[in-house]
Specification:
There is one protein chain. The protein has 497 residues and is of the alpha/beta class. 39% of the residues lie in helices and 23% in strands. It has 2 domains: 269 residues, Aldehyde Dehydrogenase, Chain A, domain 1; 185 residues, Aldehyde Dehydrogenase, Chain A, domain 2, CATH 3.40.309.10. It is built from 16 helices and 25 strands. It has a 7-stranded mixed beta sheet, sandwiched between helices. It has a 6-stranded mixed beta sheet with strand order 10-9-8-11-12-24, with helices on both faces. Strand 2 and strand 3 form a beta hairpin. The longest helix is centred in the first third of the chain and has 20 residues. The chain is globular, with a radius of gyration of 25 Å.
């Protein structure tokens, strides 16, 4: 009998009404380690009901008290960071150093949210008319929900709920059913930090739970991170029901390498950004666009570094890259290797032949490298979400820029060059939401906002940072007069100062 992972509703673990479950694998071993309960509509309704009941009191809780709880939660997450990271490794497969980094980046958003007493300040104008003042305030929305992916089981939810909760909302989280334990650990830490019951809830499950969240009349806003087809559906269904939506979709992140670039730095960056977390990052570099003769000089450096990557169980600190999250996903990624060669790309490194320091039943695939890829190939068009790096050769800067801008995804991009003028031109001309200059993974810090353009984002708001605060609050403008007795009496004219 495998242990069960329950839901968290109203401040306590609960099995819920549904009897449906799904396996949670240890991908390094290829075996199920636990079962997660799948919420039905009634379970989601219970979570939303708990959140709705908690909202009136929480929204009126003082900013100072909210900040105190946020600071305590931050302290507890930091204290349990290694425990959370190891849980992520066991369910996701990424190496321990990567999981620890994920916890740290999530903590940075919690730290940002601790400053909400300052960030929620409005504006005030005195005497906009005779003895009349105007001021703006921002108020919470109510019950809000987050639907998050498997690839960052603690960081991506932390992009959402610390800001939402600090702003006075209550939250229902539907994490990935592939690695739900980190969210349940966070729920326990929220309770230990003193968060009132019902303010933070977790419902595990699949599409049935998602569909109920999207249609539930008491949920005011939905935040989503995942693939583009699902992001589009989340946006369309939830907005049709009057909800605010920020839905972050897929990516095909390019790294442009100009001939004058530091090629050793570029090679290190390409390998680290492409194969970290086995390529299962929405900001992973999956395409290197080389300009001029840089490809001939860069390719040997990339191949050399790839051979030194150790693949195996993420809990073994001697390994650089772990398995993919499921067997089905691993097999899907492997199929692209045959598709790429059939289309005419050159398979320089075949990850199926890479040595693995791990269980033969694990969902492993070594790093893969294609050269001579063209934009019409499926290995270029599709978001593979695995350890597959493609090299596209361009003759000029303008050709490279055109390739990037023609892609429907526009999450992140990087350029490597020692030419400041070229870099400044690129940051202006490229049609992508997050840009790195000699930085391969330009994930903004918590006080800036994360989000792409085009098919990588549905909705107007990015997550965390200033846009996150605005997303989870709505503005109200108050115009006030406190008249003296002499100003009272009949006056039907329009006030004109």
């Amino acid at each position: 009998m495998l242990p069960y992972i329950d839901h968290w509703i109203g401040g306590a673990r609960t099995a819920g009404e549904s009897t449906r479950t799904g396996p949670v694998y240890n991908p390094a071993l290829g075996t199920a380690a636990s079962c997660v309960r799948f919420a039905n509509a009634a379970d989601v309704d219970r979570a939303v009901g708990a959140a709705a009941a908690a909202f009136p009191t929480w929204s009126r809780t003082s900013l100072g008290r909210r900040a105190t709880i946020l600071f305590k939660f931050r302290e507890l997450v930091e204290r349990h960071a290694d425990e959370i990271a190891r849980s992520i490794v066991r369910e996701h497969g990424k190496v321990l150093a990567d999981a620890r980094g994920e916890v740290q980046r999530g903590l940075e958003v919690v730290e940002f949210a601790c400053g909400l007493p300052h960030l929620l300040k409005g504006e005030f104008s005195e005497n906009v008319s005779s003895n009349v003042d105007s001021y703006s305030i921002r108020q919470p929305l109510g019950v809000v929900a987050g639907i998050t992916p498997f690839n960052f089981p603690i960081m991506v939810p932390m992009w959402m709920y610390p800001v939402a909760i600090a702003a006075g909302n209550t939250f229902v989280l539907k994490p990935s059913e592939k690695d739900p334990s980190a969210s349940m650990m966070a729920a326990e830490l929220w309770k230990d930090a003193g968060l009132p019951d019902g303010v933070f809830n977790v419902v595990n499950g699949d599409r049935e739970a998602v569909d109920r969240i999207l249609e539930h009349p008491d949920i005011a806003a939905v935040s989503f991170v995942g693939s583009t087809p699902i992001a589009r559906r989340v946006y369309e269904v939830a907005t049709a029901r009057g909800k605010r939506v920020q839905a972050l979709g897929g990516a095909k992140n390019h790294m442009v390498v100009l001939p004058d670039a530091d090629l050793a730095l570029a090679a290190d960056s390409a390998v680290n950004a492409a194969f970290g977390s086995a390529g299962q990052r929405c900001m992973a570099i999956s395409v290197v666009v080389t300009v001029g003769d840089s490809a001939d000089r860069l390719m040997p450096l990339i191949a050399q570094r790839m051979r030194a990557i150790h693949v195996g169980d993420g809990l073994d600190q001697g390994n650089d890259m772990g398995p993919l999250v499921t067997q089905q996903h691993r097999d899907r990624v492997r199929a692209y290797l045959d598709e790429g060669t059939s289309a005419g790309a050159t398979l320089v490194a075949d990850g199926r032949a890479h040595d693995v320091r791990g269980d033969a039943n694990g969902f492993f695939l070594g790093p893969c490298l294609f050269d001579n890829v063209t934009p019409e190939m499926s290995v270029y068009r599709d978001e593979i979400f695995g350890p597959v790096l493609s090299v596209v050769r361009a003759s000029t800067y303008d050709e490279a820029l055109a390739i990037v801008n023609a892609n429907p995804y526009a999450n992140g991009v990087a350029i490597f060059t020692n030419d400041g003028g070229a870099a400044r031109r690129f940051q202006s001309e490229v049609q992508v939401g997050m840009v790195g200059i000699n930085v391969p993974i330009p994930v903004p810090m918590a006080y800036y906002s994360f989000g792409g353009w085009k098919a990588s984002l549905f909705g107007d708001a990015h997550v965390h940072g200033g846009e996150g605060i605005k997303f989870y609050t709505r503005g109200k403008v108050v115009t006030a007069r406190w008249p003296e007795p002499a100003l009272r009496g009949k006056n039907l004219g329009f006030p004109a100062g």
